[in-house]
Write a structure and sequence with these properties.
A: 313 residues, B: 320 residues, mainly alpha, 12 helices
C-alpha cells in the first residue's frame, strides 16, 4: 500500500490511478474486510458456520447412517459409544439414549431446534425492542417515560424467572420458547436502541432533515434507524449466545423444549438423571452448547471491535 | 455532595414506585394466566367439586379478578405479601426462611468472583499480550460462555460423585464447617460467569487507565510502580467495574435459581421453582416482587457508589 501511494505521488496523482487506490482503500475499510482481519471474529464465525452447517446437514447424517432422531427402540437404550447393533449397520458413534435413539443424530437435529430458538428469540426481541426503543427515544416525554418504566419493570425480574413464568403460562413447545425468550429480552434491545436514537436524533443531519420538513416516519426509518442500528447488531449477536443458554436453561428446568423434539437443552435435561452411569449424554450436549455460545460471543466481540473502534483494546 | 446523594436517593425511590407497581401488575396478570387451578392443586386430583369451591372461597379466588388485584396491592402496601397456599405460611415468613441460604452462595460467589476476576484482569493488563494474558483471556471467554447448569452437573459428577471430594447436595448438618464444605461447589459454579466478566472488564479498563497521561505523569515523578498500579490506576479503572458489579448481582439471582436446583440448595431459587409447579400464586407474586425490590435497591446502591468513586458523573436532572 505504501509503495502504491509513493508511486501515485511520484506520478502526481494520475486520475485513473487515484480511483483505483480509492477503490482499494474503500474495500480495505469496508466492514467485512475489517472483520476478516479480526482473528477473534473469524474464529467465532468459523464455529458459528460449522454449527449451522451441522444443523442444516442433519438429514444427511440420517441418510448415510439410517439412524433417525425420533425412532424409538427401547431394547437398545443407553448403548455405549461405538456399539454396532446389527451386522452391517453403522456404529452409534456416541451411543444411544434411554429410548435407543442415536445420540449424535439427536444432537444434530437438536442443533436445529436450539439455533432456531436462538435466532427466532433474538429476532422477536430485536423487532419489538427496536420498535419500542425507536419510539421512546424519538418522541421522548411521557411516551418515553411510559415505555422505559415498563422496560425497567421487566428488567427487575431476573431474566430466567420471567422466562419461567412465561413458559408456565404459554406451555412448552418450540414456538412458545421462542416467544418467552424473545419477550424476556425485549427490554435490553429497547434500551440499547433508545440510547442511540437520542444521540442520533440531535445530530446535525437530522436537524437539517427536520428543517426541510421530513415526516416523522421518514425521519425515523430513513435517517435515524440506519444510523442507530450498529450497536443493535452487536447486541443481537451476543443476544443469540444468551438465547442458546436460555433455551438450554429452560429445558434443563423441564420447561422449554420437551420430548420428543430434541434440543441441546432437552438432551442435557434427559441425561441429568443418569449422570452416574451414562454421563456422555449430558456431557456432550453441554459441550455443544458451550462451543456454540463461545462462537457467537467471539463473533459479537469481533463485530463490536470493527463497528466501534473506540472500544478496541 | 451529600446533598446530591440525598437528591438522587429521593429521585430514585420515587422512580421505583411506578416500576414496582408495574412489576406487581405484571406478575398478577401472568400468575392468573398460568393454566391450572390452585384449589385443585392443593386438594389433589380426587377432590370433589364442592370441596374445590369451598377452597376457592377460602383463598379468595371466587372474587372477581380486579377485586383480587386491588386486595393484593393494598395488602402489599402494608407489607403483607399474602399467604402461600402450598406451605400454608405467610409469604414473607417463607422468604425470610429461605433468603439466608441464597445470600450465602450469592455473596460468597460474588466475593470470589471480584477478588479472582479483578486480580486476573490487573495481571492481564500489566502483562498485555503475554502468554499468561492470552491464557487467562481465553479462559475468561470460555467462562462467560459457560452454561452453568451444565458446569454444575459436571462438578457433581466428577468432583462430588466420582472423586468424592465434595458433598453432592444440600446444606449439611448445621455445623459451620460442614456448611462451608457444602458451599464450595455451588459457590464456584455461581462464581464462574462473574469471575470471567470481571476479568475481562478489569483488563480493558485497566489498560485504558495505565496508558492515561495522568499515570504517565506519576511515573515521570518517580512514584513507585506498585503505588501507581494499586492506588491510582486501579482507582481510575473502577467505574466500569462497579457498573458490571451491579449487572452481575442481578445475574447472580438467575444463576442462583439454576445452581440451587442442581445442588438442591434450599434457597429462593428452589422455592420459586416449586411455587410455579404448585401454582402457588401468592408465593410466586411475593417472590418476584421481592426480587424486584432487591434489584432496584442494588441498582440504587451501585449508582451511589458510582457517583462517589467517579465525581465526574452528575445525576442532576439527567437520565441515563
Amino acid at each position: 500500500m505504501a509503495n502504491n501511494t509513493a508511486t501515485a505521488q511520484a506520478k502526481g496523482f494520475a486520475p485513473e490511478y487515484d480511483e483505483e487506490l480509492l477503490k482499494r482503500e474503500r474495500k480495505a475499510n469496508s466492514a467485512w474486510s475489517k472483520l476478516r482481519r479480526n482473528k477473534t471474529a473469524m474464529v467465532g464465525l468459523v464455529i458459528v458456520v460449522v454449527m449451522i452447517l451441522l444443523a442444516v446437514c442433519a438429514p444427511l447424517y440420517t441418510q448415510i447412517t439410517g439412524f433417525q432422531f425420533n425412532k424409538i427402540d427401547p431394547v437398545h437404550g443407553y448403548l455405549e459409544p461405538g456399539t454396532v447393533v446389527n451386522e452391517g449397520e453403522m456404529a452409534h458413534i456416541l451411543g444411544t439414549d434411554k429410548l435407543g435413539r442415536d445420540l449424535l443424530c439427536r444432537l444434530l437435529y437438536g442443533a436445529r431446534t436450539s439455533l432456531i430458538v436462538a435466532f427466532g428469540g433474538t429476532i422477536v426481541a430485536g423487532l419489538i425492542g427496536a420498535l419500542l426503543g425507536l419510539i421512546a427515544g424519538f418522541f421522548g416525554g411521557w411516551v418515553d417515560s411510559l415505555i422505559m418504566r415498563i422496560m425497567d419493570g421487566m428488567l427487575s425480574f431476573p431474566f430466567i424467572l420471567l422466562a419461567i413464568i412465561l413458559m408456565t403460562v404459554l406451555g412448552s413447545g418450540l414456538f412458545n420458547v421462542i416467544l418467552a425468550i424473545g419477550i424476556g429480552s425485549v427490554p435490553n434491545f429497547a434500551r440499547v436502541l433508545r440510547g442511540e436514537v437520542i444521540i442520533v436524533k440531535n445530530a446535525e443531519y437530522c436537524n437539517a432533515a427536520r428543517v426541510l420538513g421530513v415526516s416523522n416516519a421518514r425521519m425515523l426509518f430513513t435517517h435515524i434507524l440506519p444510523n442507530a442500528i450498529s450497536p443493535l447488531i452487536v447486541y443481537a449477536t451476543l443476544g443469540i449466545a444468551g438465547a442458546i443458554i436460555s433455551e438450554a436453561a429452560l429445558s434443563f428446568l423441564g420447561l422449554g423444549i420437551t420430548e420428543p423434539t430434541p434440543s441441546w437443552g432437552q438432551i442435557l435435561y434427559s441425561g441429568k438423571d443418569v449422570m452416574s452411569n451414562h454421563p456422555i449424554i449430558s456431557t456432550v450436549s453441554g459441550i455443544f452448547i458451550l462451543v456454540t455460545v463461545l462462537g457467537f460471543n467471539l463473533l459479537g466481540d469481533g463485530i463490536r471491535d470493527v463497528m466501534d473502534p473506540k472500544m478496541k483494546k | 455532595m451529600v446533598n446530591q446523594v440525598l437528591k438522587t436517593i429521593l429521585k430514585r425511590v420515587l422512580q421505583a414506585i411506578p416500576t414496582l407497581l408495574i412489576v406487581v401488575t405484571f406478575t398478577f396478570i401472568l400468575t392468573r394466566m398460568i393454566p391450572g387451578n390452585p384449589a385443585q392443586t392443593i386438594l389433589g386430583p380426587q377432590a370433589t367439586a364442592e370441596s374445590i369451591a369451598a377452597m376457592e372461597t377460602k383463598l379468595g379466588l371466587d372474587q372477581p379478578k380486579w377485586v383480587q388485584y386491588i386486595d393484593y396491592v393494598l395488602s402489599v402496601l402494608q407489607g403483607d405479601f399474602g399467604t402461600s397456599y402450598s406451605y400454608d405460611q405467610p409469604v414473607t415468613e417463607l422468604i425470610a426462611q429461605r433468603i439466608p441460604a441464597t445470600l450465602q452462595i450469592t455473596i460468597i460467589g460474588l466475593l470470589i468472583a471480584i477478588i479472582i476476576g479483578v486480580c486476573i484482569g490487573i495481571f492481564s493488563a500489566l502483562k498485555q499480550y503475554s502468554a499468561g494474558d492470552y491464557i487467562f483471556m481465553v479462559l475468561a471467554l470460555v467462562g462467560v460462555s459457560m452454561p452453568i447448569f451444565w458446569l454444575g452437573l459436571m462438578m457433581v459428577k466428577y468432583l462430588a460423585v466420582d472423586l468424592g471430594w465434595f458433598p453432592v447436595s444440600g446444606r449439611g448438618d448445621g455445623s459451620f464447617g460442614d456448611l462451608v464444605y457444602h458451599m464450595v461447589l455451588p459457590c464456584l459454579c455461581l462464581a464462574t460467569i462473574p469471575t470471567a466478566t470481571f476479568a475481562r472488564i478489569t483488563r480493558s479498563s485497566m489498560l485504558e487507565s495505565i496508558h492515561a497521561d495522568s499515570i504517565k505523569a506519576l511515573r515521570a515523578r518517580g512514584i513507585k510502580e506498585k503505588a501507581i498500579i494499586w492506588k491510582h490506576a486501579l482507582k481510575n479503572a473502577l467505574p466500569p467495574i462497579v457498573t458490571v458489579l451491579g449487572l452481575q448481582i442481578a445475574g447472580c439471582f438467575t444463576g442462583a435459581i439454576l445452581t440451587e436446583s442442581i445442588f438442591s440448595w434450599p434457597g429462593m431459587g428452589t422455592l420459586i421453582v416449586k411455587a410455579i409447579t404448585n401454582r402457588d400464586y401468592m408465593l410466586i407474586q411475593g417472590a418476584v416482587l421481592f426480587f424486584a425490590i432487591v434489584f432496584i435497591v442494588v441498582n440504587l446502591v451501585v449508582d451511589l457508589v458510582y457517583m462517589i468513586i467517579n465525581p465526574r458523573v452528575s445525576y442532576e436532572g439527567g437520565s441515563k
